[in-house]
């Protein structure tokens, strides 16, 4: 298993190009199952989770070519309607094949994802929605087996807001017979990006970007071209990094309009931000001020940025309260940060972070994707050396993070196992 060795204490200066969003690319790749036509995608990030998804889709018969930065999917020869346990257990987003397979082929067999480090993460809402559309679903031997000659439109109100649940039901509804109304839909920009691709493929969707999606099912979808939206979580991760280390960085190929709450918090922390149509410049010359927040669904503060902001809060002036409302177990970075000298206490779903003047490097363990990113930030401010183990978590969702950060002045070295 690779590790990262970080020497802390260096400011960041320079430009970083932001990749396409992981959480947009994963459902968008699954949308390739919905048509026999070519779906050409630009800005697909180069990540382990994308590789895993492509492996799964290829097993189903999806043809994938990647040339000159364009990923072309062709679903004219899908012959296996199954997502096996060995792949689903490594990546929960595999559940996103369920809706498209069922809608286009009338059947799908997808392994239940099982446990997850950040919370229990059931998929009951995906199942409830597909059942409302007429699917016959059984759970047997750890697999969800869904059948429906043709799904039919329905009004679906999910019990809670679910991102991949909305995406699965949205994709299924595009090929259903009649009108589907998805109430309480997730409004994340990645859901909007998927919806925009589906419209380009011939889907009829109204209410894109709102919590009420109305879909008129069509008989078939066709090929399309699409550019995957910029990764707002990668963007925020680098912004937190410069807030913690100080410096002056410009993030290119990104968007500020999908990062409002995060940018407000960074301004409160003392970061000077300037933005353009596709770039964000962040200048930081002082120790950050502590910022409190509570994670919620978009457009609120994203759970996927909680750990990285906490890393900044560790060395901020003052005390912050960080409340996690989306996942029940997403504070695993806290113990690791405390090993670096942070002063964080957990009280239920809230972490109370007492900012300290300095962290001191130590060996730490990455436990999930965003926790890993937060430890990279903490390591960059800690005095001396921090060795982060299990960084395969980081590689799942960040495109060569250590290379991008080293290019702007960080001292990070990958140690191959
Ligand atoms: N939930 C249920 N039942 C369901 C679906 C969700 O109880 O059927 C609960 C979950 O357990 C959780 C809450 O609802 O407590 C929200 O979960 P959601 O379904 O929205 O999460 P997800 O779709 O599985 C996506 C992202 C996550 C991100 C969350 C929240 C993808 C591939 N994953 O997960 O990304 O944290 O939305 O914004 O889009 C990450 O990138 O590090 C990551 C974990």
From TrEMBL:
State its Enzyme Commission number(s).
2.5.1.7
Output the superkingdom of the source species.
Bacteria
Q: Does the keyword Ribonucleoprotein apply?
A: no
Residue span, Enolpyruvate transferase domain: 7-404
Q: Which CDD domains does the protein's record reference?
A: UdpNAET (cd01555)
Q: Which residues bind UDP-N-acetyl-alpha-D-glucosamine?
A: 92, 121-125, 304, 326
- Please name the catalytic residues of this protein: 116
Q: What's this protein's name?
A: UDP-N-acetylglucosamine 1-carboxyvinyltransferase
Q: What class of enzyme is it?
A: transferase
Q: Which HAMAP family match?
A: MurA (MF_00111)
Which GO MF term does the entry hold, naming one?
Answer: UDP-N-acetylglucosamine 1-carboxyvinyltransferase activity
The major lineage groups are: Bacteria, Pseudomonadati, Pseudomonadota, Betaproteobacteria, Burkholderiales
Which family does this protein fall into?
Answer: Belongs to the EPSP synthase family. MurA subfamily.
């Amino acid at each position: 298993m690779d590790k990262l060795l970080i020497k802390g204490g260096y400011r960041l200066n320079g430009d970083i190009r932001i990749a396409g969003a992981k959480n947009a690319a994963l459902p968008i790749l699954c949308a390739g199952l919905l048509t026999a036509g070519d779906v050409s995608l630009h800005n697909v990030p180069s990540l382990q989770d994308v590789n895993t998804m492509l492996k799964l889709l290829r097993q189903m018969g999806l043809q994938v070519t990647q040339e000159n930065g364009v990923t072309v999917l062709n679903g004219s020869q899908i012959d296996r309607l199954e997502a096996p346990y060995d792949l689903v257990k490594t990546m929960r987003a595999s559940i996103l094949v369920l809706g498209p397979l069922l809608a286009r082929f009338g059947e799908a067999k997808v392994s239940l994802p099982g446990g997850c480090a950040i919370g229990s993460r059931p998929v009951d809402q995906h199942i409830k929605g597909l059942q409302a559309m007429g699917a016959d679903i059984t759970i047997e031997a750890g697999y969800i087996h869904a059948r429906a000659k043709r799904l039919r439109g329905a009004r679906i109100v999910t019990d809670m807001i679910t991102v991949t649940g909305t995406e699965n039901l949205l994709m299924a509804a595009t090929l259903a017979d009649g009108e589907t109304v998805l109430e309480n839909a997730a409004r994340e920009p990645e859901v909007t990006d998927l919806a925009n691709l589906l419209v380009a493929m011939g889907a009829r969707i109204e209410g894109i970007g709102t919590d009420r999606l109305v879909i008129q099912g069509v008989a078939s979808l066709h090929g399309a071209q699409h550019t995957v939206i910029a990764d707002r979580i990668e963007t925020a991760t680098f912004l937190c990094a410069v807030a913690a280390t100080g410096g002056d960085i410009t993030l290119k190929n990104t968007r500020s309009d999908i990062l409002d709450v995060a940018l407000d918090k960074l301004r409160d922390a003392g970061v000077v931000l300037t933005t353009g149509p596709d770039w964000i410049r962040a200048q930081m010359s002082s120790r950050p001020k502590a910022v409190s927040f509570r994670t919620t669904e978009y457009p609120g503060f994203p759970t996927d940025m909680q750990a990285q902001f906490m890393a900044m809060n560790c060395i901020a002036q003052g005390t912050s309260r960080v409340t996690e409302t989306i996942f029940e177990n997403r504070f695993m970075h806290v113990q690791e940060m405390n090993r670096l000298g942070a002063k964080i206490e957990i009280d239920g779903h809230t972490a109370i972070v007492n900012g300290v003047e300095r962290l001191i490097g130590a060996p730490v363990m990455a436990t999930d994707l965003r926790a890993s990113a937060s430890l990279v930030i903490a390591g960059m401010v800690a005095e001396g050396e921090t060795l982060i183990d299990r960084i395969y978590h980081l590689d799942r969702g960040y495109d060569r993070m250590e290379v991008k950060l080293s290019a702007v002045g960080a001292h990070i070295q990958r140690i191959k196992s």
